[in-house]
Amino acid sequence: MAWFDEARFYHIYPLGLCGAPKQNEYKDPVNRISALKPWIDHICELGFNALYIGPLFESVGHGYETTDYRKLDSRLGTNEDLKDFVSYCHAKGIKVIFDGVFNHTGRDFFAFQDIRYNRENSSYLNWYQNVNLYSNNSYNDGFSYDTWGGYDLLAKLNLYNPDVVNYHMDTVRFWINEFDVDGIRLDAADVLNGDFMKRLRYETSQMKDDFFLLGEVIHGQYNNWVNDQTLHSVTNYAMHKAFYSSHNEHNYFELAHTLKRSFEMCGDNAYKLYLFADNHDVERIASKLSNKNDLFPLYVLLYTLPGIPSVYYGSEFAIEGKKERYSDDSLRPCLSLAEMKKQGTFYQELIQRLSDLRENEKALVYGPYKELHLRTQTYCFERGDILIVSNNSDDMVTFELNKEGSYTGVFTSKKIQSEYSKLPISIDAHSAEIYIPDNEDRKAYTPIKVERKEIRKKEKESIPKIRIASKPYEEMSIEELQSAILAKLSANGPLNDRMIKDVTDNVYRESLLNWIRSFR
Fold first, then answer.
1. Is 4 left (phi over 0), alpha (psi -120 to 50) or beta?
2. DSSP state of 56
3. Separation between Cα atoms, residue 360 and residue 367, nearest integer Å
């Protein structure tokens, strides 16, 4: 097995965490990256064994408009500083992967600058895609070119040009030889040339054993990228969405269906997909959850469902962060580790326990997944011989499994035992438990105290009153039809904000009549 099969990733956006200036003035290097060494000690304490850090190399601003692929961003230090940092990680047992921004460059990259100054005489005209010297761009260069996302700042490279491909291969070889990097996260992998990725897979397999290739993929058929010829893994954005919305909407069917879809696309490679609750491009998970207590079951699911778990820096402290109109700065803050630790959170202890479990209970890494119980608000599945149960509702839930055995919970030390082939399960509101089979050879886990946030319940008057009218639907008013529909929905389970809004926003009689008649 490769090292990344058992990886527990911690994700750092270094320019943000180090508090580097937003714009690079290309001045003398400032060694900020060494200030991250205490964070490496911290993640070792939490049980992480891999680090995804990036972007790292010289750039104009946020890091993805590369100026020089072979020079650490001067806002972070020198190449010697980066070499020392990676060596420090390795000494602590931490594998390291860099961002590989190979789809596009910044405008200060040497090839782009050559086109600006030499135009039709430039030997780099074919380094970029669809350069048109008879057009223009927003910078008034007197030529146009393909971009990433429509941003002229990000000029799209021509990965069909062998010179460009060879340049990138030499860059990766330089990273391995100079920094001993263990893998790459490919930025914008969903728009990269497939042949380029195949070449990268082959070349890196010759350069270093178990060199990990992770692709950033937002949408699409993941098996197009995750296979024996291209990448080892991709970012599972579908599961990212399911993690938070299945809790906010009290609907674990979404999570289970999304996982099923991952298996349909990738087969056993679904166990290698990269799982995350948040990252440098999306809002913090603590900001996305309607009920912050759902962080507990969410993190348990992140670490126990098939995939490679990852935690974004600061989220172990349950910090919040929302997207701003023109900036992602709030998603990429400068943090003081000492100050964060003073505050302390239950989630540090939880992540430490989950990391320990994945280290000692290999069934949580390699064990086959089997769904045992699925309702909108409760979810129970098996990884090998280990049971995982979660509850996203406001109440304790009790149910039975058709299963023999005796188990002990790793968070509560609660024991459960089957009677007459029925295994009783009870799980607290907004909670989760992992049950290990009782066995003298298994490690014993001490209980941990679950941190609970007080959530103020909505005022009763904010929920529409449900009145049952004793007359035919055709004679009901709009308000009466809405009330009747809410009554039907509430009979199937608790109403949530989305359900109430969908009904009360609908003021069209024919639509409401069709809706109420659809109930059986």
1. alpha
2. -
3. 13
Query: How is residue 519 written in tokens?
Result: 């109930």
- At residue 206, the 3 state secondary structure works out as helix
**Helices (H), strands (E): how many in the chain?**
16, 21
Provide the 8-state DSSP code for 458: P
- Look up tokens 């490769």; give the residue: 2
Domain range enclosing 388: 367-437
Q: Do 412 and 495 sit in the same domain of this protein?
A: no
Rounded Cα distance, 9 and 48, in Å = 6
Q: Are residues 206 and 315 in the same domain?
A: yes
DSSP 8-state code for residue 132: B
**Residue 292 contacts residue 248 (beta carbons within 8 Å):** no
Place of tokens 């909505």: 458
Q: What is the pLDDT along the chain (520 residues), one digit of tens a residue?
A: 899 999 999 999 999 999 999 999 999 999 999 999 999 999 999 999 999 999 999 999 999 999 999 999 999 999 999 999 999 999 999 999 999 999 999 999 999 999 999 999 999 999 999 999 999 999 999 999 999 999 999 999 999 999 999 999 999 999 999 999 999 999 999 999 999 999 999 999 999 999 999 999 999 999 999 999 999 999 999 999 999 999 999 999 999 999 999 999 999 999 999 999 999 999 999 999 999 999 999 999 999 999 999 999 999 999 999 988 778 999 999 999 999 998 888 999 999 999 999 999 999 999 999 999 999 999 999 999 999 999 999 999 999 999 999 999 999 999 999 999 999 999 999 999 999 999 878 888 999 988 777 654 443 344 455 555 567 888 788 888 888 888 877 766 667 777 787 788 787 777 778 788 777 5
Backbone φ and ψ of 142, nearest 5°: 85, 20
Tokens of 473: 């639907």
For the entire predicted model, the pTM comes to 0.88
* Beta bridge mates, 324: none
Domain count within the chain: 4
Q: Are 65 and 154 in contact (CB under 8 A)?
A: yes
> 84: which residues sit within 8 A by CB, 6+ positions away?
34
CA atoms within 13 A of residue 492's CA, in its CB half-sphere: 12
Residues 140 and 164 occupy one common structural domain: no
Question: Do 498 and 360 lie in a common domain?
Answer: no
Cβ contacts of 51 within 8 Å, gap of 6 or more: 9, 10, 11, 12, 40, 43, 89, 94, 95, 96, 97
